Amino acid sequence: MQAFTKLNGLVAPMDRANVDTDAIIPKQFLKSIKRTGYGPFLFDEWRYEDHGEPGMDCTNRPKRADFVLNKQRYQGAEILLARENFGCGSSREHAPWAILDFGFSCVIAPSFADIFFNNCFKNGILPIVLDDLVMDQLFKACVKHEGYRLDVDLEQQTVTTPGGESFHFEVDTFRKHCLLNGLDDIALTLTQTDVICSYENERRKSASWLF
Amino acid sequence: MKAKTLFDKIWGQHIVKENDDGSVLLYIDRHLVHEVTSPQAFEGLRLAGRKPWRVNASVATPDHNVPTTERDKGITDPVSRTQVETLDSNCEEFGITEFGLDDIRQGVVHVMGPEQGLILPGMTVVCGDSHTSTHGAFGSIAMGIGTSEVEHVLATQCLIQKKPKVMRINVNGARPNGITGKDIALFIIGKVGTAGGTGYALEFAGEAIRSLSMEGRMTLCNMAIEAGARCGMIAVDDVTIDYVNGRPYAPSGEIWEQAEAAWRQLHSDDHANFDKELNFQAKDIVPQVSWGTSPEMELPITESVPDPLDARDEVQREGWSRALQYMGLQAGTPLQDINIDKVFIGSCTNGRIEDFREAAAMVKGKHVAKNVKLALAVPGSGLVKQQAETEGLDTIFREAGFEWREPGCSMCLAMNADRLEPRERCASTSNRNFEGRQGMGGRTHLVSPAMAAAAAIAGHFVDIRDWH
Ligand code: SF4
Asked: Domains, chain A, ranges and CATH?
């Protein structure tokens, strides 16, 4: 997993509440065999005029001009501003995969759905919770100033505006540690290799039929 | 020594390490793999340059996407084909045993595993599929997991888990004639609801449960997930041991003796403490039929479609009204008056040899009703199919107007060509009756194999107890 330490990135505003994982990545894409490649289909139904299917070449698909991520000024955005309960609905891990594959590695919202929030950390995405007033301020600034960027510092737990205003955010110590070091659950469990091996050796003796 | 539950015994034996936050690193003995939830996990391994921790712990087979006709033509849907071919190449690359499409052992992953003796009492079993709970029938802890966890198990042979609470559900007294594991499962879900088991591991116990064959026990545990439970399980007894004995992957000789001695301990001790305990009487159970769009919306065949006005609260009333509308049913209609268009006998719930024997007994010498457009009998595995054919069951089905198919998930979730058309009504032995589960707009009624078979002949649901 990619570590997340600091990010100075272009910001895109997704000004809708209750964005669900079905909207983030529609169900037909679950037939895909990959963890990557969902980026072009992120928000597929909102982004394109036609119906998307896995494996499609999206370059020439008709795009909805009014959809925020289609706007020229937000191309290359790495930070997504969102509204409450972002990522609700089905538990599909394809949702954070699509967000990451599109290029976002940080989502800032007043609240997130639980499973999505967890899945973000498992995939190297930093979800940040800031309160509604701050969110309003960021949304306004982002829309007003083309090329609006934010500084995110996970170590310091701050989001800083171009004007130098800093907002503190909370993050679970353990998750922070994993994200800072790019440790996924697997990498962490693999730090226990000795313990697992000695467990196995013991079991090989006491329950050999399991091996 | 403190009295322990069956769950606690197995859980305790699999703790590799306890973490400070109360979670544990749990060792996984058996990992079943299929084509839909594994590709990203394998890709993850590849990207990180990791290898499976213990290749012989995992066994794979394609099931969800496979065609049930004309196998020799291969899979025509390119997306499905890619998923299946990806499973083949991943298994080859990582050295994992796979029973591929051309292998007689191929089948629904939860039918294949037990049949091969891959599931042994006391194991921890996982699979990227919620119906992994099936394998708890062997006195094991068997849980469905997500794709990240599939990768985690492949890479480390462990999972990070928090211990669930344990609930024992006793079904007391002798099991009445015609009442199967499926009826018991639907009955229990009807009583506790689809969230009744949330946060729990369920142990099914009592005389009626013990009287079930392994097939019946697997059917029951299979549906524990529909009660919201983490897993379902049944204590080991002679029935379990006899089933496992002699299977290809089961131990033999001296090791068998040691294993059997250990397995004989796999039951809850007297006075073991459960977080919750429920009691039901087997004599209260009659053949069940689901009428709505959730497995808890089910009733005895002797009843009528419920009236939303009788619902216990506003939320349930709304749920019932929506379900009735989707299902195209009128409140007050006797369940036995509901005509059906299609019949599906199969799935990981009821795709085993006993299921086909029971269904065949109902259709023998009779013919599917005129209003039934399609009656499918889809064996859970190649070996179930072979066994059924040896017994001549395929002929009985065919002569009755059924189609006898190749093994796979088939119309359980309609990921292949087998599906319901909008508004078609199906008597199905599968486990989920959600909207669109068997095809967009399709209407599913969950029943036992004998009930599905009888409905195929009658053209509507019947009470098999007085039908025979
Ligand atoms: S038979 Fe149905 S429930 Fe069982 S594994 Fe296949 S799709 Fe899932």
From this structure: 6-184 (3.20.19.10)
